[in-house]
Amino acid sequence: MSDDDTPEAILARAADRARRMSLPYAGAVTPAEAHRLAETGAAKIVDVRTPPEWEQVGHVEGAPLIEWPRSGEAGAVAAFVSQVERDYRPDETLLFLCRSGARSHAAAQVLAHAGYTRAYNILEGFEGAPGTQSGWRAAGLPWKTGDGPQTP
Fold this sequence. Notes:
By secondary structure, the chain is of the alpha/beta class. The chain has a single domain (3-138), classed as Rhodanese-like domain (Oxidized Rhodanese, domain 1). It is 40% helix and 10% strand. It has six helices and four strands; from the N terminus they run αβαβααβαβα. It has helices spanning 7-21, 31-39, 51-57, 74-87, 102-113, 135-138, and strands spanning 27-29, 44-47, 94-97, 119-122. The chain has a four-stranded parallel beta sheet with strand order 1-4-3-2. It starts with 6 loop residues before the first helix and ends in a 14-residue tail after the last helix.
């Protein structure tokens, strides 16, 4: 493992991105960085996509699904936060993953506001923005389909 590949170096880069991008949460990581953090046990990936996306498009093995409410309705967002609060401590390093990085950005933002000091967005998401060759799968990182959504 190189010095640039340590969890500390990755999280420092993520925090630097947060400053440069004026993010209201701890930071943003690339899919490869997220994979490295998860495989070393330095962070947990939480998938915020829909159950059909998780099961049919594919997912990171072992990453639980806690669906981000697309409606944005206050009660649904509060229920999302409550589920995260039931499953994770506010000081855990959590990496949020969606299709392109938009819903995971919203999830990290809301959770930072709720007191999660180590909430991160996975840039590019699982598939990348439409029409792009980016994201977790395009990076050649391990993933699978099926098995139904896992919960923490």
